[in-house]
Amino acid sequence: MIIAKKKPMEEIIEEVKDFDKILVFGCNECVTVCEAGGKKEVEVLASALRMYFMTHGGEKEIFEKTVERQCDHEYLEEIRKDIDNYDAIISLACGVGVQFTAEKYLTTHLIPGVNTVCLGANEDRGLWTERCQACGSCVLAKTGGICPVSRCAKRVLNGPCGGSTNGKCEISKDVDCAWQLIVDRLKALDKLDDYEKVAPVKDWSTDRAGGPRTVTREDVNI
Amino acid sequence: MKVNTQSNLEKVLKAGHLGVTSECGPPRGSDPEEVKEKGSLIKDHVDAVNVTDNQTAMTRMSSLAACVHLKLMGIEPVLQMVTRDRNRVALQSDILGAASFDIPNMLCLSGDHQSFGDCAQGQNVHDLDSMQLVQTVRHMRDEGKFLGGDDIKRPPKIFVGAAANPFADPFEIRVPRLAKKIACGAEFIQTQCIYNLDKFEEWMKQVCDRGLHEKTFIMAGMTPMKSVGMAKYMKNRVPGMDVPNEVIDRLAGVDKKDQAQEGIDICVEAIQRLKEIEGVSGFHIMAIEWEEKVPEIVERSGLYPRPEV
Fold first, then answer.
1. Which domain holds residue A167?
2. Interface contacts A/B by beta carbons within 8 Å
3. Fewer CB within 10 Å of terminal CB in chain B, N or C?
4. B131 vs A165: CB contact, 8 Å cut-off?
């Protein structure tokens, strides 16, 4: 899923302080699961803003709404009837949801309430970690199911680099060396010989290097 | 053995001599005199001089420019190139630039992560990795073609090297990783600094058992310790470094003012021991900001004068 992290309160206040009627807008998908932008977080942020502006003399109306998905035209329609009531929307969705909402409501100010961090998983209570960078050309079949693109700080395809120590990356003792994990997994699969196959120069045109990416499927375009 | 380039280092190694290289870090400024001075301190005692590429991710004078300064003084450079800062367009372009000055050697590296340096908030590139960079240089030289497939007018004639760390993790792939670099086309290898001689010899035995020493020239990396403080720092803080307690105890066992000399002695003794090991083709002496000591180390190790080839 997409992992997001709440923006600092001060940053949000700075962005919305000149608006009077503000919708705090949540999303019931990824940001709910990673506890950054679901119904619960909408309530918490809306309450915090009300308290702030009450004590700082601002006459603000703060509204709350959470939809099933902000990355879906159908669900975004749910706020159309009320859209003129808002001067600004703080969207707690990922960057996709914020932009989809902005595209749909051209004359309403849109402010992101979270920072979109990565594609990842809930590894442990309160811990979300990256697993994919959507490079558009998956190499996991060749790397024991561990991704060197997203999990190696240098995206080394023929790793590890010289900085791998005791299973950890040179950038931090808290970060696993992706290539240690790859070697461990190849060993578990009894495929350590595969390590010596050289990964060729990668086609990064499917990554962000190729510009904004699209998927077109004629078979579902009916 | 067929020589492919004008590299003196290649000729020395292929003639069967023990090669000697050293290293020179470009300055954090634009004064060329610093590079020239370092170069002149070591030029008579080595076959070629590595020029580091923004080492530890600290912004410095470009490696290629510093190489040109050395080359114009008649010193043979080894251009170090990391994949951190340049994509395949820039890498190929700089390879041609180096070849236009007849810089005949390159060492291909991934480079320390930018978080260690003065631009921790910068992007890194890593379009290619170090092994793919080795492949790229070999492709440009041997096929005379760019990665994109077009012909190169006057292809670069460059002797290509890579780094190896005999002490690195994961343990199981220390030797396979070297094999992979050789398969990519690495013609010489410069190793991480060696202090744990027993462990290095163990690695070298496995390298020789696979016959890898016959497919590349392995130059053992040596860095003299200036003090017990430096030894402890290297042991505890530098990733992938193996400094045995005996080295620290020996340095700690002499007066502070004598520790630098003790460090040189340890280095010379290590070279003398490793000279006799099968598979060692030479030495890469990295006397960090201590270039003036290189001549003494080379002479006392019996590696002077350098052969004329």
1. 133-208
2. 95
3. N
4. no
